[in-house]
Structure formats: C-alpha cells, structure tokens
Amino acid sequence: MSNAEHPRRTFCQGSTQRYFDREFGRPAIKIYPGGYAATAEPVLISTVLGSCISACIWSPQQGIGGINHFMLPESETSDPLSQGLYGIMAMELLINALMKLGVPRTQLQAKIFGGAQLIQPNGTGNVGERNATFVENYLMTERIPIVAKDLLGRQPRRLVFFPQTGQALIKRLGESTLSPQDIAQQRNSALQLAARNAGGSVELFDQSVNVS
User: Fold this and answer.
1) Stated pTM of the model
2) Range of the structural domain that residue 112 is part of
3) How many domains does the chain have?
4) Do 51 and 85 form a contact (C-beta atoms < 8 A)?
5) With helix as H, strand as E and coil as C, how does 92-116 read?
6) 193: part of which helix (H) or strand (E)?
7) Counting beta carbons within 10 angstroms of the beta carbon of residue 167, is it exposed (0 to 12), middle (13 to 18) or buried (19 or more)?
8) What is the tens place of the pLDDT at every residue in 129-172?
9) How many degrees, rounded to 5, is the angle at CA 81 between CA 39 and CA 116?
C-alpha cells in the first residue's frame, strides 16, 4: 500500500524513547533535553523539567499535539544534533512537525512549563527565567495563544501531556540545586543521547491542587 494510504502519525527527533506507561495504562513517549515528539496517536508524552522548558502545543479541533524540551534560549553551537536543545529551533521543529501532521497553524494552542531556578547562587544568570521569558515572547510573536502555564519556582516538575485532549498533568518534585557544571553535563548527556537516536488548564497529579 502507498504512503498516502498510511500517512505518518508521529514525528520524533533527538532524545526520545517509547515505552508503556503503567501508571496511566497506555503507550507513551518520553522526551529528554533536545528531543521533541508530535503525534496523532492515542499516546501520552512525558518529560521531567528543571530549568528547561517544554511547550505543549496542540490543535483542540484535531486532537493532534506534541512537546519539545529545550535547555537554553540561544544556540551555542552549529552542531545539527544540538538544535533541539535551544529555544527557537526547538519551537520551530515542533510546530513544523505538527503542520506536517495536517494541523493548520491557526489552530495551535500552547501550555508551557518549567523554568525553575536550580542553579546555585554563584551561577551566572537565571537560566530558568531566561527560558520562561523566551518561550512567552516567542509564542506571543507567533500569535499562538498560551492557555495555561506553570513556570519558575525552585522545584523540578514531571510533565505528562495527552495530545488528543490537551490535558497536561504536573507533579512537582523535591527542590534541587545544580551547579553550572551540572548544567553543562546535562547538556553533554543530551547531545550523546541525541546522537544515538538520530533519525486551558493544568492539573497537578498526586496532589489536590489545580493550576490554570
């Protein structure tokens, strides 16, 4: 049968992993720094965020959506494997993948998460705040409405996103402090994983608080 009869339903790039999520009882895709996934399949997409940002972008009309996971607003390298680690490319890669799945740009909505301040006080700059400012400004410029967000603070977050409904679940984890060296190590680890793999509301789960 032709590709036209079986159109592609998922685009993944960079640091991603498929698995079966026992907690929610369905197939899942885990995103690591520098990766993204866009899908029309009935799967969930999960990630864990510190100072990094994930944008959950989807079409409510079509039930198609995805997540990215970037570490810094601006690129520090021309290495193509690292593109998804940086804000502008991470956003463009995800949006372009959704459009390839047939989503008109005018249908896109966003929920944004992450940007915690985890670097030790002697670190240079607030990476989480810079990331949060970038993603809000980017989406405003691109006229993609932000319907919910959970940004900044001092706690890492686990994020679970259901592209078919746009539901996003957040679990806040224990406070953590990282040195600039830790951040650099995370970035290097993400690059290594990418090389191997080359090819309206927010709900808090395990807690009784809703964020909107």
Assistant:
1) 0.77
2) 21-59+73-152
3) 1
4) no
5) HHHHHHHHHCCCCHHHCEEEEEECC
6) helix 180-197
7) middle
8) 999 999 999 999 999 999 999 998 888 899 999 999 999 999 88
9) 70
